[in-house]
Amino acid sequence: MTRTTLILLILSVVIAGFLSFYQYIYKVKKKSKLIYFLTFLRGMSWVTLFMLLINPVISIKSNEIQKTPLPIVFDNSKSILEVKGTASALQLYDRIKSDKALSAKFDVQFYAFDDTFEVLRTLDFKGKQSDIDGVAKNLKQLYRNKVHPIVLITDGNQTLGNDYVFSFKENAAVYPIVLGDTTTVVDLKINQINVNKYAFYKNKFPVEVLLQYNGNQQVSSNFSIAKGNQIVCKQQLVFNKNKRSQTLRLLLDANSVGMSTYKATITSKIKEKNTYNNSKKFAVEVLDQRSEIALVSTINHPDISALKRSIEANLQRKVTVVNPKEIKSLQKYTLLILYQPNPSFSTVFEQNKVSKLNTFIITGTSTDFNFLNQKQTDLQFKVSEQKEQYLAHFENDFNLFGQDNIGFDNFPPLEHKFGTILPKTKTSTLLSARINTVQLQNPILTFAENGNSRTAYLLGENIWKWRLESHLNANSFTNFDLFTDKIIQFLATNSSKNNLTVTYESFYESGDNILITAAYFNKNYAFDDKAQLTILVKNKATKATKKYDLLKSNSQFQVHLDGLAPGAYSFTLTEKQSQSKFTGVFEVADFDLEKQFVNPDRIRLSQLAATTKGTLYYPNQVATLLDKLIADEYYLPVQKQQISKTPLIDWQSILLLLIALLCIEWFVRKYNGML
């Protein structure tokens, strides 16, 4: 309370006394106890009213004891069952929870984790994944700027997230308690299989298999890969204590079109504790053929190499750079890219009248526009010999296919002859031209459709600079290569627009997040966010069906198909109003990542303890750990003084007191006939 406030309060008492004296005593000749009582009530009323008007701030001090937080984190995943650590985990929970000395010193909080992190409610060991890195991230958020220990009760086997050894913050000492049987047992394991998603018919595709051995004796094993009942690859391998891992690089034949499922298996004569990790499935989609694209040009330019590399980033594409005079037939090509056409392209245009291939025409400073005006009917070029640098502007309303703005507005300018470019038919422009900040009507990248025929126009050379700029921005060519791939994908098919587009994988492993996304377009081919999409999923073996609604998310609809048992499935996705349908198939492989482990990972947990200046313990050493934490003077409760400041006007009791005083005064006066 300030000095000014104190002076005002004293003055208010003096004024209140003066007013009450003047109102009741000053002119009263016969003074009685009733008069003095009423004077007191009036004086208290004046004092209370003045206090509310002055509104002093009242400070209240309180002391609070803050204990050091102690998170106890339990692993609730299936791997604890596999390493036989469930009994120890439950015993540890009861032992720690019942320790009153620990609770007296620390603010003990129990948590559990699998693929998520949450407050411990029950330990059922049914989690399908283990994310110890997620534990570290969540504890950082919960106990920010606090120094505290962490008791981590786990087997140390992680299936999600980054390496947890360096994930925990520096001011949090981690004390891991190792769950499970630490006895080393013999175990052969298929650790990982790396394979491309696509392969090409009648070609070979590579498969990389990472095998791991746990044990000390020498073991002979047989490795095989089967497709259905047919073994397509087989090898004999030897492991010992000095050779605990091997990597096999194999080539398999793609001899049937469509989705092919394979099963890799490793076996030995020695009895293993865990045979679940001895086999693993993988799938490859075999494509009938590659799209062969002719890039026709009479000049040498960096654009040609950049386009070839970008298009062939998709292994389904093959680009052949050819001079127009060398082309005798267009039958083997699925798409033509005509780079800066001139009269020597006449034979190509004439042949394409018969072949009717979609074309991608790129113009620049070496293009003969008089010739081009005669050979195509989509655009009218009125240009001079003067050269100009054109910047790109991304058109958000473009809807022929989905394309994000990858920074087109900041890409280097393309060079082209100056003039106007007018559409003669209906076109859809993805990128329009501008000079500095002046927006022009000319397109830079536009598309035209005439029946089933499609043509794209890129009006400007030096697109190789765009690919380099994209790499500088994203440290990868991926964004630009996806951009060109979408153009080629649009041109490589003559099919009409589909109102319902669906994105999904053909092969999932059990435990994966099975996400299917869809987009529905109305008659104007604009995204319809009011569409009602449902999906009916059918198990091919059991004939059981499940129906789901798709939920809108940003510019698409999506559904998570959780809880599907391993097997082959077909699905039908339907839009309610238009009855548009899409059908597809996928397979869920029987694979449980948590069943891959036979021993706890003591090495990683020991490294975690050393990194955070903690200590590794085993379940039978829990008493030692608790005694250490209780005796550690580094983690002592802290007494903090808190001062809360409240304006007097916020005290409702003062207002009630004023009302009560006035009511009592009125009642007394009324009762004694003074009103």
Verbal overview:
This protein is α/β, with parallel strands linked by helices and 675 residues long. 25% of the residues lie in helices and 37% in strands. α1 (3-24) runs antiparallel to α2 (33-54), α2 packs antiparallel against α14 and α7 (302-311) crosses α11 (478-491). The model has no long low-confidence stretch (mean pLDDT 87).
Strand order of the largest sheet: 16-15-17-18-23-22-21-19-20
Q: How much is the radius of gyration in Å?
A: 39 Å
Give the overall silhouette: flat
In percent terms, what proportion of residues is strand?
35-45%
Mean pLDDT level: 87
Poorly predicted runs of 5 or more residues: none
Total beta strands: 33
Structural class: alpha/beta
Q: How far apart are the termini?
A: 40 Å
Specify the biggest β-sheet.
9 strands, mixed
Number of helical segments with 4 or more residues: 14
